[in-house]
Amino acid sequence: MLRMLRFRRYRVFLAFAAVFSLLLLRYSHTWDYLIDAKHEQSPIEDDHGDSPHPLKELNGYPKDSEKPGFLQMKPPVSEVATQTPAPKPSSTSSILAVVPTLPHVVLPHRTKPGATVTEEGDSTEEIHPIGQPGRQELPSFSAVPTTIHWERQVENWPVPTESLIRLPTGAPVPIPKIQHVFNDETPDAKINREKRQNKVREEFQRAWNGYKSYAWLHDELSPVSGKFRDPFCSWAATLVDTLDTLWIMGLQEEFEEAARAVDLIDFTTSPRSDIPVFETTIRYLGGLLAAYDVSGGIYKNLLEKAVELADILMGAFDTPNRMPVLFYRWKPTFASQPHRASQRSNTAELGSLAMEFTRLAQLTKEPRYYDAIARITNALYEWQERGTQLDGVFPDSIDASGCNRSVPLTTNQPIANSENAPLTPAKDADPPHGYEPSSPKTVAEPKKKGMKGQEPAELEVQIAPPTLGQPSKAKIVGWDDNSGTRGQSKRDLGDAGISNSTLAQSQAPATRDAPAVDSTVVKSGTTNPTTSDVVTDPVTGLPIDMSGAKKALGNALSDWDCTPQGLDAGNSYGRNKFSMGGGQDSTYEYFPKQYLLLSGREEKYKQMYIKTIDAVRKWMLYRPMVPGDRDILFSGLVTTFGEPEKDLKLTAEVEHLTCFIGGMIGMGAKIFGLEGDLELAIKLADGCVWAYEATPSGIMPEGATVLPCESAEQCTWNETAYWEFLDPMFASRDQTLADYIVQKEARDAEKVRLAEAVLTKADQELLDAKQAADVPPRTQHEDVLRQEAKAKLSSSLTDLTHTIEPAPTLKPVSLRKRQFGAIEESKAVPRNFQDDVAQAKQNYKKDAANDIGAMQGVSSPSSAVTPKDNLYMDKTLATEVELRGLAAGRQAEVPLQQHTPQESAATAETLPDPMRPLSHKEYVEKRIAQEALPPGYVTIRGRKYILRPEAIESVWYMYRITGDPTWQDKGWNMFESIIKHTSSPYGHSAIYDVTVDKSEQIDEMESFWLAETLKYFYLLYSTPETISLDEWVLNTEAHPFKREVSP
């Protein structure tokens, strides 16, 4: 009973708690709604003045303390209308409603709200609703308590101000013109160019409108389903990436709308736990700076947001050697901890941060941005001078940790730059005390049994200091010595009885990400501190007092847990890969572009590019063997162990990402005076055009391989060599088929012999069955009647077989003539022959019975047929049907139609022999058909097209550098093919397979489609002064930065 009462009270308590929670949730939600409504009635004015750009001044937007989170839910339009007066239009200003700082509920399927009313009576339309179909459900309560924001951390390895690498100064170096001097175009050429340009703009607007309607403030649009994706940090990647394209295309209103929306992005928080530094830098930071540049520096909020983002990214550079962590864990819990760069850093991601941080340093005059990337450049330059496995270029993976873990640690290494961090310990500070393990005391030696009259001896204990990866150990000296002496063994590491203080100062075990060291743990009186002078924890190997040791040792923390080294290959002992393709491409692309951005003031970039292009010419460029003998080039992938003259291997890759190389080499040829390289650039760009034209869709695949020619000068199409390359067993395949045919003929002959033996045996068995039947003696007249009856049966079966198509490929087997008359050669029996055979059987029995009755003179023929006669007739007919089926090959699927033997033989299909090997010709034809290989391709590694820009990028560079209008025609063919296959309901979608005429769509539209691909197409049909190569330099995401014009 007591248990029942307790249970009831427990249920009452639960019910009361549930009611209380619901009431609390209801009233807290109402309070948040009232706060939001109050904020909506306090807009901030944006005074445009007389500027033609409505967003000339954006300083009134929320500051750091008022950073907006998610776009807030607004009251219904009807409620707004009852609470505020009717809006009054104004042509002088446009007011944006202030978005509250705290994130609130965002409901899916929101309808676009109407205009809000401001204190000034002006009205403006809301930017966009963000609660579109497909958005994840958000909780109905405020997310503030669970939202984590980035916080500025105290750097573990700060660079002193006096040690910062600053932007190079001095007079700009004269740089030759890059762009061709164009003549005035004809009226017809202008009409055609503008027509194409307008078509590109229309496709861009269609995709942009789809993003605005269905994915606003999200990273990417799903153009088939009308949903969205956030593969990056949910910071509106497409919006930021597309800003400069909107301006270049003259879409002023769309640009202003997007520029205002930039302030709604909160870079201090993200649903993603890490920031991809490379992608964030080239898309977000590059997009903001380029939009600021192309708009003439009017929209100040763009630069402010760029600085906000850059300050967050700078935390990734806080490592002992200042090499960045490429996937930066931004949350304070992790960002506050010491960390190192990866031992498997991607080459392109490490080396492609220079342009964006350089341009930011130029605009803000803040040297620490340039210092961050200058140290990467210096490290790459030093490595290139030191030499890589393939001299001049870097492998696809880099050990950027700065640690050489293959070298044993040295305890007394001098501390670099120790004079910059003088030792100033507190005089009155107590001596540090770390973890001190208790030292073993003297232990009485155990007495062995049977030992009497002997005094127990004392054991001598030795404590060994910790070694790399091993804790400290204790041992009894001489325990393993069987000679009775207590001399030290070979494993003794030092004198017995090491003191605790000595142990505390001994070599520390290596740790992967050791924090900094501290001055207060350095032994008193030390004037030139080393790592051995720091009191450490014997368990962790780290300093006892971290902050003090860091001050004492300064930059030496990089030496704390490893031997320092420069950049090195991520795979130091194996075969490394080198190419101009994905994972390495943009590092080399930035060498000449950084030279342009710095106006030639930094000579290292020129030297690094020249060494790179020398290696590319020597090892990577090749000419493919293609139909039509088109003179084109590609840059392949090479592997080597470090002796390329002996072990280098070339893979003839055709990779879409590598197609940027035509533009890079063409630009490098102009600015560095390498005029011979311009021809290489033209052939490289034209190679990617061929890769587009060769496929059924007219679009280049992500990756493929071709057959390289040994000589670039003599390279003609040889179909025999191409087929032999496709068939590695071409030399033995035809002989294997010939051997199989001979063996099969022998097997078939043996089968025929065995079949004839079976038929002979069947004939004999049938004859024996007939003789064994008990048939009364017959007269000569009876024998005549029986022969006539059997002839009728033979005639009936013959008529039946005339209506059946014979076996098409098998040679009919001649049936032996039975004892009741001649039978024609067999015919094919179809599946539906049973009814006809049954009817023939009935006719045969009826005729036979009549004959037998006539012979016996009876009036009822059926009464004259004995059971033995019926048995004999059944066996005879069954045997005939079975033999006919065997001879026909049991062609069950042949329809019951009347055909002549000639027609049947001509139209019949041959059943394939599954055991028959293919000939060389058959193998190649089937492989080409099954793999859908376009002419000239030997493999297709990636069949997708994800709206990539690299091919049209080089086409645009070639047009601007050479002035040849044929590049515009080539680009137009590419554009029409891409639009044909990628157009989707809400934009343009990536496709799965470019080797088919109609491919399925992937439902993805990456931000570079609007930021790069369509921008390059548009610029291809723009006037030459639009983003002139002599005034602008584009980053790897096609974001144009303003150059300092050379004299």
Structural overview:
- Residues 405-421, 498-509, 897-907 have a biased composition (Polar residues).
- Pathway: Protein modification; protein glycosylation.
- This is alpha-1,2-Mannosidase.
- Residues 526-539 have a biased composition (Low complexity).
- With 1047 residues, this protein is mostly helical.
- It has 29 helices and 25 strands.
- A 3-stranded antiparallel beta sheet has the order 7-8-13.
- A hairpin with a 5-residue loop joins strand 24 (1032-1034) and strand 25 (1040-1042).
- Helix 4 packs parallel to helix 29 and helix 7 (300-313) crosses helix 10.
- The longest helix is centred in the last third of the chain and has 43 residues, at 730-772.
- The chain is elongated, with a radius of gyration of 44 Å.
- The termini are far apart.
- Mean pLDDT is 74; it is low at 28-144, 409-443, 445-456, 481-527, 800-833 and 889-897.
Total count of strands? 25
Mean pLDDT: 74
Helix content: 40-55%
Shape: elongated
Strands side by side in the biggest sheet: 7-8-13
Major sheet size, sense and barrel closure: 3 strands, antiparallel
What is the CA-CA span between the terminal residues?
100 Å
Total count of helical runs of at least 4 residues: 29
Radius of gyration: 44 Å
β-sheet strand percentage? 5-15%
Give the structural class.
Answer: mainly alpha
The poorly predicted ranges are 28-144, 409-443, 445-456, 481-527, 800-833, 889-897
Features of the shown structure:
EC 3.2.1.-; single chain; elongated; 25 strands; 3-stranded antiparallel β-sheet; mainly alpha; Seven-hairpin_glycosidases; 1047 residues; 29 helices; calcium ion binding; metal-binding; glycosidase
